[in-house]
Amino acid sequence: MNEKKPAGSKNKGFWFRMVQQKYLYFMTIPFVIWVFVFSYLPIWGWTMAFQKFRPARSFWDQDWVGFKHFVDLFNDDRFYLVMRNTLAMSFMSLIAGFTIPILFAVLLNELRNQVFKRFVQTISYLPHFVSWVVVAGIVTKMLSIDGGVINDMLVGLHIIDKPIVFMGEGKYFWTIVTSSDVWKEMGWNTIIYLAAITGIDPEQYEAARVDGAGRWRQIWHITLPGIRTTISVLLIMSIGHLIQIGFEKQFLLGNPRVIDYSEVLDLYALNNGLALNRFSFGTAISIFNSVVSVILLFVANSIFKRVTKESIM
């Protein structure tokens, strides 16, 4: 028969491990402080969303207005247009920016020439270190109607009769942003999948080859299942950040002609919060953004936990 452990043994085990690993705990203290100061302490600023905040007044002298700013937010027709843009670009980025790095990692793993493999990998993740200011300039120049490579090529191949104003038509904007983001981050996002692939036991591939499995069968039955946990965790985290796509890409690539397609939630908060000195309204947008992200994270984690048995919590 198995003897039952005393109730306090679990706690004793924890303190025993803590004493044994005290240096590791001491090493984490600076990071815990950093997270507390920059991630949790600023939550105090959320109180601005329930005030008519005026910078010249102290906290106790502010006028409290309850949920007025949230009511104004949901009554603004512009907010729903912005949410459409945010969700559209988020889903496009999630589909393209998530699947392409996986495919690229699998294809790189199949390369037998190690020198060529390292060269391709290095070239692919170099754009990650280029700022969005430079990337926006490159994209704008390539899509220009005056000497732009894309227009010159399309006209030269007689696909179009005259240059297209890509940067001036809203129907192209979402595709341009998504494509630019994939080109910039594809190589960098591939690194983690390549690291996961290297953790797969090589004997599985040897056994598959002995059984007559070709490369495609090895990929389908060994490589992809071997990185399933990594894929699931990263997908859950990506869904959690679905509406937090930032504003740099949209701000730098956008212009007044495509504002109805380029303005996203963070850019909406910038234009209607800081630019107009409506700090409380901007804080309300930030709270909405954070709450929705947390809900999406828990929902995605719950679904994956039930369907795939994989989760981050």
Q: Give the tally of β-strands.
A: 2
| Form type | flat
The profile of the biggest β sheet is: 2 strands, antiparallel
Low-confidence stretches: none
Order of helices and strands: HHEEHHHHHHHHHHHHH
Strands in their spatial order, largest beta sheet: 1-2
Mean pLDDT: 87
Which percent bin holds the helix content?
A: 55-70%
Radius of gyration from CA coordinates? 25 Å
Structural class call reads mainly alpha
Strand content: under 5%
Count of helical segments?
15
How far apart, in Å, are the first and last alpha carbons? 33 Å
Q: Which short descriptors sum up this protein?
A:
single chain; 313 residues; mainly alpha; two-stranded antiparallel ribbon; 15 helices; 68% helix; flat
Strand-helix topology:
Layout: H1 9-20, H2 22-40, E1 51-52, E2 63-64, H3 68-74, H4 77-109, H5 114-125, H6 132-142, H7 149-156, H8 170-198, H9 202-210, H10 215-226, H11 228-240, H12 248-253, H13 259-262, H14 265-274, H15 279-307
Antiparallel strand pairs: 1-2
Describe the structure.
This protein is mostly helical. 68% of the residues lie in helices and 1% in strands. The chain contains 15 helices and two strands. It has helices at residues 9-20, 22-40, 68-74, 77-109, 114-125, 132-142, 149-156, 170-198, 202-210, 215-226, 228-240, 248-253, 259-262, 265-274, 279-307, and strands at residues 51-52, 63-64. A two-stranded antiparallel sheet has the order 1-2. α11 (228-240) packs antiparallel against α15 (279-307). The two termini are 33 Å apart. The model has no long low-confidence stretch (mean pLDDT 87).
